[in-house]
Design a protein that fits this description.
240 residues; alpha/beta; six-stranded mixed beta sheet; five-stranded mixed beta sheet; 8 helices; 11 strands; globular
C-alpha cells in the first residue's frame, strides 16, 4: 500500500492539484489529510471539495477549527485573522459543519494522524525539535505518527531517546517510534517554495518526503485578486 500524506493545504488549489498528480504518478493507492485544508490562500471551497471527494481519513487543523466557528477566538495574528474572516464568507454551512466535525486524531491502518501534537491535539502546540516531540511519543501507540502544523518537513524517532531522522527517505524499523512531519502542501516555511507531502510505502516500511513544483504565480495572483493580505502572496515564493 502507498499512502499519500497531505497536510496544510491552506486553500492553495494549484499546489494541491500538483501534489495529487504526483501522488498518482507515484502509484499511491490511499490518502490521508492532516488538517488545515483552508486558510491563507484563495480557493478554500475548491480544496475542501477535493479533500472530501478523496473520502480519506482526515483530522482537524487550527485553521479548520477557526473557519468553522461563528466568531474568531482571537488566537491568530493579523494576516491569518484577515484570511480566516474572508474564508468564513466563502464557505457554506455544510462546509463549516464538515470542518467542525473532523476528529483531532485518528489511527489509520497501523499508523496515527494528528495535526499538531498527541499529548494535547486541540491546543495546537508546535513540534520543531526532538525535545518538542518527547511528549507526543509518550502518547503514541503506533510505530508511526504523521503530523503537520509547522509547515516544515522533518521527522523524529524515539528508541529510548528522541532524535532527528535524516531526510528524505525514512526506513521504519521495529522497536522504534517515528513522529513524521509531512510539511505543507500549500504554504511551506522551510525556505523551499515547492509543495511538500510524503508517501508511506507500508509494504516496504519506507516514508519518502517529496517536493512538487506548481503554478505558484497563479496561486499568488489569486490571493491578491481576492483582496487577501499581499504578504500571503509574497511569502509563497519565499517558502517562509
Amino acid at each position: 500500500m502507498r499512502v499519500a500524506v497531505l497536510s496544510d493545504v491552506h486553500a492553495n488549489l494549484e499546489a494541491l492539484e500538483a501534489v495529487l498528480a504526483d501522488a498518482r504518478d507515484q502509484h499511491c493507492t490511499h490518502y490521508v489529510c492532516l488538517g488545515d485544508v483552508v486558510g491563507y490562500n484563495a480557493n478554500p471551497r475548491e480544496c475542501l471539495d477535493i479533500v472530501r471527494k478523496l473520502a480519506c481519513p482526515s483530522v482537524k487543523g487550527n485553521h479548520d477549527e477557526e473557519a468553522s466557528l461563528p466568531h474568531s477566538s482571537g488566537d491568530f495574528n493579523e494576516w491569518a485573522e484577515q484570511a480566516i474572516l474572508w474564508t468564513r464568507r466563502q464557505l457554506s454551512e455544510a462546509d463549516r459543519t464538515w470542518l467542525h466535525d473532523l476528529p483531532l486524531q485518528l489511527e489509520v491502518h497501523d499508523f496515527t494522524i494528528v495535526h499538531a501534537t498527541l499529548e494535547a491535539p486541540g491546543e495546537w502546540s508546535y513540534v520543531f525539535s526532538p525535545s518538542d516531540a518527547v511528549a507526543s511519543f509518550e502518547y503514541q501507540q503506533t510505530r508511526v505518527c504523521f503530523f503537520g502544523h509547522t509547515h516544515v518537513q522533518g521527522a523524529f524517532l524515539c528508541d529510548g531517546l528522541a532524535k532527528e531522522v535524516p531526510q528524505p527517505a525514512i526506513h521504519v524499523e521495529d522497536g522504534k517510534k517515528y513522529f513524521v512531519n509531512a510539511g505543507s502542501v500549500g504554504q511551506p516555511r522551510d525556505g523551499d517554495w515547492r509543495a511538500a507531502y510524503c508517501i508511506f510505502r507500508t509494504d516496504e516500511n519506507v516514508i519518502e518526503q517529496r517536493r512538487v513544483q506548481y503554478d505558484i504565480e497563479q496561486a499568488r495572483k489569486k490571493v491578491i485578486r481576492a483582496g487577501l493580505p499581499r504578504l500571503l502572496a509574497e511569502r509563497l515564493a519565499l517558502g517562509r
